[in-house]
Amino acid sequence: MKVKYIRVSTLEQNTQRQQKNESEFDKVYLEKISGVISFFERQEAKKLIREIEKGNIDEVHVTSIDRIGRNILDILTVCEFLNNKKVNLYVENIGMFSLVDNESNPIFKMIISVLGNVSEMERIYMLQRQRQGIEIAKSKGKYKGRLHGASMSDEDFLKKYKKVKQELENGESLRRAAKLGECSLGTAQKVKKILLKPELV
Question: Which of the residues 14, 98, 101, 181 has an alpha carbon 20 to 30 A from that of 170?
Fold first, then answer.
């Protein structure tokens, strides 16, 4: 079975570019989650992995390697997993397969290592620019972050951390919910505390 894995980082991002050739595939797995979350911990990716474990999939396509992850170690781990399962990974923007005659393609691995490192560096630079922008805005008195002491209603807080709420309601631990929801453990604890309030039961 030939499938495609699509990922965007946020609910608002458009997936049309990645979906343009979806009719070519037996199944499409579409995920809206940050690339910093390990591939093996994403909901749609887990479904894909289960099908791979059953031997139902022999080819996986992605638009670019950063759809797999933003961390070079995660990317290489996923590639190795697929190779061990004899599942051919095709990266569309470089037009290359991970396997040739059912054996690991060394050129693919070399190129992916370079692209994976570039993806990781891009994220680091993006976060640095974001922090610098906030510092500049603060120095000019234009920072629009939440004012110190400003409060947020329980309803708004749960909306903001909807993913954490969902994971906790699904029975995940606080640490795992915090990781999947990309927030601190303290934030996850606050979400749980709100959920346990009598009026929300």
Answer: 14
Domain boundary among 116, 143, 165: 116
Could you tell me the pTM of the whole model?
Answer: 0.60
The per-residue pLDDT for 198 is 58
Q: Which of 9, 38, 64, 113 is catalytic?
A: 9
Helices (H), 54-180: 72-84, 106-139, 154-160, 162-169, 174-180
User: Does residue 98 carry a catalytic annotation?
Assistant: no
Nearest one of 153, 43, 172, 42 to 192, comparing CA atoms: 172
Among candidates 70, 65, 79, which has minimal Cα distance to 122? 70
CB 44 within 8 A of CB 52: no
Query: Is 128 among the domain residues?
Result: no
The encoded tokens of residue 55 equal: 């031997």
**Domain assignment of residue 18, given as a range:** 2-116
150 versus 89: which is more confidently predicted? 89
Instruction: Report the alpha-carbon distance of residue 77 to residue 74 in Å, rounded.
Output: 5
